Amino acid sequence: MVSTTExxxxxxxxxxxxxxxxxxxxxxxxxxxxxxxxxxxxxxxx
Length: 46
Hints:
The chain is α+β, with helices and mostly antiparallel strands.
């Protein structure tokens, strides 16, 4: 699920699985579909 967050006067979309934030809702939804937060060591830095 994607949550909406207001920060610095802009709307951000956060992946509820891993917490990664996006400025476009479509990017967040695409990420969430492929999110593998079950892995304890993600391949990217937050």
